[in-house]
Amino acid sequence: MNDRKILLIGGVVAIAVIAIGGIYLSTRPSTGNQFAACQAGVVSGGMDSFGTDFTLTRDDGNRVTAAEVFDKPSLLYFGYTMCPDVCPLDSARNAEAEALLKDEGRDVQTVMITIDPRRDTPEVMAEFTDLFSENMIGLTGTNEEIDAVSKGWRNIYKAHDEEDKEYYLVDHMTMTYLVLPGNKTVEFFPRDVTPEVLAERVGCFLDAAG
Protein backbone atom coordinates (compact mmCIF):
# COMPACT_ATOMS: atom_id res chain seq x y z
CA MET A 1 0.00 0.00 0.00
CA ASN A 2 2.79 2.45 0.83
CA ASP A 3 4.47 1.83 -2.52
CA ARG A 4 1.15 2.30 -4.28
CA LYS A 5 0.56 5.61 -2.50
CA ILE A 6 4.01 6.78 -3.49
CA LEU A 7 3.24 6.07 -7.13
CA LEU A 8 -0.24 7.52 -6.83
CA ILE A 9 0.70 10.77 -5.15
CA GLY A 10 4.35 11.43 -5.78
CA GLY A 11 5.30 9.50 -8.89
CA VAL A 12 8.23 11.09 -10.62
CA VAL A 13 7.69 9.43 -13.95
CA ALA A 14 4.96 11.07 -16.00
CA ILE A 15 2.63 8.63 -17.70
CA ALA A 16 2.47 8.68 -21.47
CA VAL A 17 -1.14 9.20 -22.50
CA ILE A 18 -2.14 7.72 -25.84
CA ALA A 19 -3.76 10.19 -28.20
CA ILE A 20 -7.41 9.78 -29.00
CA GLY A 21 -6.72 7.19 -31.69
CA GLY A 22 -9.67 6.51 -33.90
CA ILE A 23 -11.98 9.07 -32.25
CA TYR A 24 -12.39 12.36 -34.04
CA LEU A 25 -14.82 15.17 -33.28
CA SER A 26 -15.93 17.46 -36.07
CA THR A 27 -17.12 21.04 -35.78
CA ARG A 28 -20.46 20.11 -37.30
CA PRO A 29 -23.14 19.44 -34.65
CA SER A 30 -24.91 16.10 -34.68
CA THR A 31 -28.43 16.16 -36.08
CA GLY A 32 -31.39 13.81 -36.19
CA ASN A 33 -31.33 12.65 -32.58
CA GLN A 34 -32.70 13.83 -29.26
CA PHE A 35 -29.24 14.72 -27.97
CA ALA A 36 -28.15 16.84 -30.93
CA ALA A 37 -28.21 20.09 -28.95
CA CYS A 38 -25.99 18.59 -26.24
CA GLN A 39 -23.32 16.86 -28.30
CA ALA A 40 -20.11 18.72 -29.06
CA GLY A 41 -19.78 17.18 -32.50
CA VAL A 42 -20.02 13.99 -34.46
CA VAL A 43 -17.82 10.95 -34.09
CA SER A 44 -16.71 8.38 -36.61
CA GLY A 45 -19.16 5.50 -36.50
CA GLY A 46 -21.62 7.43 -34.32
CA MET A 47 -22.12 7.09 -30.57
CA ASP A 48 -23.99 3.84 -31.10
CA SER A 49 -20.61 2.29 -31.92
CA PHE A 50 -19.53 2.72 -28.27
CA GLY A 51 -20.29 0.28 -25.51
CA THR A 52 -20.83 -3.43 -25.04
CA ASP A 53 -22.53 -5.83 -22.70
CA PHE A 54 -20.29 -7.34 -20.05
CA THR A 55 -20.03 -9.24 -16.82
CA LEU A 56 -17.26 -7.96 -14.53
CA THR A 57 -16.31 -8.13 -10.86
CA ARG A 58 -17.42 -5.16 -8.76
CA ASP A 59 -15.22 -3.81 -5.98
CA ASP A 60 -17.35 -5.65 -3.42
CA GLY A 61 -16.44 -8.97 -5.05
CA ASN A 62 -19.80 -9.55 -6.74
CA ARG A 63 -20.11 -10.33 -10.43
CA VAL A 64 -22.32 -7.76 -12.17
CA THR A 65 -23.62 -7.17 -15.67
CA ALA A 66 -23.63 -3.93 -17.63
CA ALA A 67 -27.38 -3.62 -17.03
CA GLU A 68 -26.84 -3.87 -13.27
CA VAL A 69 -24.03 -1.29 -13.31
CA PHE A 70 -25.67 1.24 -15.60
CA ASP A 71 -28.99 1.47 -13.79
CA LYS A 72 -28.61 5.26 -13.61
CA PRO A 73 -26.70 7.90 -15.64
CA SER A 74 -23.01 7.11 -15.22
CA LEU A 75 -19.68 8.78 -15.88
CA LEU A 76 -17.49 5.90 -17.05
CA TYR A 77 -13.69 6.05 -16.98
CA PHE A 78 -10.98 3.52 -17.85
CA GLY A 79 -7.88 3.76 -15.66
CA TYR A 80 -5.78 1.97 -13.06
CA THR A 81 -5.04 2.45 -9.39
CA MET A 82 -1.24 2.70 -9.61
CA CYS A 83 -1.45 5.49 -12.18
CA PRO A 84 0.78 8.24 -10.74
CA ASP A 85 -1.12 11.31 -11.89
CA VAL A 86 -3.70 11.21 -14.66
CA CYS A 87 -6.19 8.72 -13.20
CA PRO A 88 -6.41 10.33 -9.74
CA LEU A 89 -6.97 13.75 -11.29
CA ASP A 90 -9.60 12.49 -13.72
CA SER A 91 -11.36 10.47 -11.02
CA ALA A 92 -11.44 13.51 -8.74
CA ARG A 93 -12.84 15.65 -11.57
CA ASN A 94 -15.58 13.10 -12.28
CA ALA A 95 -16.45 12.79 -8.60
CA GLU A 96 -16.70 16.57 -8.29
CA ALA A 97 -19.02 16.72 -11.31
CA GLU A 98 -21.11 13.97 -9.73
CA ALA A 99 -21.39 16.01 -6.53
CA LEU A 100 -22.40 19.14 -8.45
CA LEU A 101 -25.10 17.22 -10.28
CA LYS A 102 -26.41 15.70 -7.07
CA ASP A 103 -26.63 19.20 -5.59
CA GLU A 104 -29.05 19.89 -8.45
CA GLY A 105 -31.08 16.83 -7.54
CA ARG A 106 -29.77 14.66 -10.38
CA ASP A 107 -29.06 11.03 -9.54
CA VAL A 108 -25.81 10.13 -11.28
CA GLN A 109 -22.83 7.92 -10.45
CA THR A 110 -19.19 7.46 -11.39
CA VAL A 111 -17.73 4.16 -12.62
CA MET A 112 -14.11 3.17 -13.16
CA ILE A 113 -13.09 0.07 -15.11
CA THR A 114 -9.48 -0.94 -14.57
CA ILE A 115 -7.16 -1.55 -17.49
CA ASP A 116 -4.70 -3.24 -15.11
CA PRO A 117 -6.57 -6.31 -13.81
CA ARG A 118 -3.36 -8.06 -12.72
CA ARG A 119 -2.84 -5.61 -9.85
CA ASP A 120 -6.33 -4.17 -9.47
CA THR A 121 -8.18 -6.72 -7.38
CA PRO A 122 -11.66 -5.87 -6.08
CA GLU A 123 -10.14 -4.87 -2.74
CA VAL A 124 -7.61 -2.54 -4.39
CA MET A 125 -10.34 -1.03 -6.57
CA ALA A 126 -12.53 -0.39 -3.52
CA GLU A 127 -9.72 1.35 -1.69
CA PHE A 128 -9.00 3.55 -4.71
CA THR A 129 -12.57 4.55 -5.55
CA ASP A 130 -13.34 5.35 -1.91
CA LEU A 131 -10.71 8.09 -2.11
CA PHE A 132 -12.98 10.05 -4.43
CA SER A 133 -16.60 9.10 -3.81
CA GLU A 134 -18.32 6.57 -1.61
CA ASN A 135 -20.64 5.94 -4.57
CA MET A 136 -17.93 5.37 -7.19
CA ILE A 137 -18.09 1.84 -8.60
CA GLY A 138 -14.84 0.04 -9.38
CA LEU A 139 -14.85 -2.87 -11.83
CA THR A 140 -12.20 -5.45 -12.63
CA GLY A 141 -12.05 -8.85 -14.31
CA THR A 142 -9.84 -11.19 -16.26
CA ASN A 143 -7.49 -9.90 -18.93
CA GLU A 144 -9.86 -11.22 -21.58
CA GLU A 145 -12.87 -9.52 -20.02
CA ILE A 146 -11.10 -6.18 -19.71
CA ASP A 147 -9.82 -6.43 -23.29
CA ALA A 148 -13.36 -7.04 -24.55
CA VAL A 149 -14.88 -4.17 -22.57
CA SER A 150 -12.13 -1.77 -23.64
CA LYS A 151 -12.65 -2.74 -27.27
CA GLY A 152 -16.37 -2.07 -26.87
CA TRP A 153 -15.68 1.52 -25.82
CA ARG A 154 -12.84 1.89 -28.36
CA ASN A 155 -10.41 2.39 -25.49
CA ILE A 156 -6.71 1.81 -26.21
CA TYR A 157 -4.16 0.89 -23.55
CA LYS A 158 -0.78 -0.81 -23.22
CA ALA A 159 1.04 -2.05 -20.12
CA HIS A 160 4.81 -1.55 -20.01
CA ASP A 161 5.46 -4.64 -17.92
CA GLU A 162 8.12 -6.33 -20.03
CA GLU A 163 10.85 -5.86 -17.43
CA ASP A 164 9.13 -4.87 -14.20
CA LYS A 165 6.07 -6.98 -13.33
CA GLU A 166 5.21 -4.98 -10.21
CA TYR A 167 5.76 -1.24 -10.68
CA TYR A 168 5.02 -0.80 -14.38
CA LEU A 169 3.05 2.02 -15.98
CA VAL A 170 0.15 1.65 -18.39
CA ASP A 171 -0.41 3.98 -21.32
CA HIS A 172 -4.11 4.60 -21.82
CA MET A 173 -6.72 6.93 -23.21
CA THR A 174 -8.34 9.37 -20.84
CA MET A 175 -11.88 9.87 -22.06
CA THR A 176 -14.87 9.88 -19.72
CA TYR A 177 -18.07 8.48 -21.25
CA LEU A 178 -21.64 9.35 -20.35
CA VAL A 179 -23.63 6.11 -20.24
CA LEU A 180 -27.39 6.22 -19.73
CA PRO A 181 -29.53 3.41 -18.30
CA GLY A 182 -29.81 0.59 -20.80
CA ASN A 183 -26.05 0.76 -21.48
CA LYS A 184 -26.46 3.58 -24.00
CA THR A 185 -23.36 5.74 -24.46
CA VAL A 186 -24.32 9.22 -25.65
CA GLU A 187 -21.15 11.29 -25.30
CA PHE A 188 -17.52 11.33 -24.23
CA PHE A 189 -15.54 14.12 -22.61
CA PRO A 190 -11.80 14.90 -22.76
CA ARG A 191 -9.88 15.39 -19.56
CA ASP A 192 -9.50 19.16 -19.98
CA VAL A 193 -13.23 19.70 -19.33
CA THR A 194 -13.73 21.26 -15.89
CA PRO A 195 -16.07 19.72 -13.31
CA GLU A 196 -18.48 22.63 -13.75
CA VAL A 197 -18.64 22.29 -17.54
CA LEU A 198 -18.87 18.51 -17.28
CA ALA A 199 -21.81 18.77 -14.89
CA GLU A 200 -23.52 21.33 -17.12
CA ARG A 201 -23.12 19.20 -20.23
CA VAL A 202 -24.28 16.03 -18.49
CA GLY A 203 -27.31 17.96 -17.27
CA CYS A 204 -28.16 18.82 -20.87
CA PHE A 205 -28.22 15.13 -21.79
CA LEU A 206 -30.34 14.24 -18.77
CA ASP A 207 -32.86 16.93 -19.67
CA ALA A 208 -32.96 15.71 -23.26
CA ALA A 209 -33.45 12.13 -22.12
CA GLY A 210 -36.49 13.22 -20.13
Automatic annotation (TrEMBL):
<keyword id="KW-0812">Transmembrane</keyword>
<keyword id="KW-0472">Membrane</keyword>
<protein>
    <submittedName>
        <fullName>SCO family protein</fullName>
    </submittedName>
</protein>
<feature type="binding site">
    <location>
        <position position="87"/>
    </location>
    <ligand>
        <name>Cu cation</name>
    </ligand>
</feature>
<feature type="transmembrane region" description="Helical">
    <location>
        <begin position="6"/>
        <end position="25"/>
    </location>
</feature>
<dbReference type="InterPro" id="IPR036249">
    <property type="entry name" value="Thioredoxin-like_sf"/>
</dbReference>
<dbReference type="InterPro" id="IPR003782">
    <property type="entry name" value="SCO1/SenC"/>
</dbReference>
<feature type="binding site">
    <location>
        <position position="172"/>
    </location>
    <ligand>
        <name>Cu cation</name>
    </ligand>
</feature>
<keyword id="KW-0186">Copper</keyword>
<feature type="disulfide bond" description="Redox-active">
    <location>
        <begin position="83"/>
        <end position="87"/>
    </location>
</feature>
<keyword id="KW-1015">Disulfide bond</keyword>
<dbReference type="Pfam" id="PF02630">
    <property type="entry name" value="SCO1-SenC"/>
</dbReference>
<dbReference type="GO" id="GO:0046872">
    <property type="term" value="F:metal ion binding"/>
</dbReference>
<keyword id="KW-0479">Metal-binding</keyword>
<comment type="similarity">
    <text>Belongs to the SCO1/2 family.</text>
</comment>
<feature type="binding site">
    <location>
        <position position="83"/>
    </location>
    <ligand>
        <name>Cu cation</name>
    </ligand>
</feature>
<keyword id="KW-1133">Transmembrane helix</keyword>
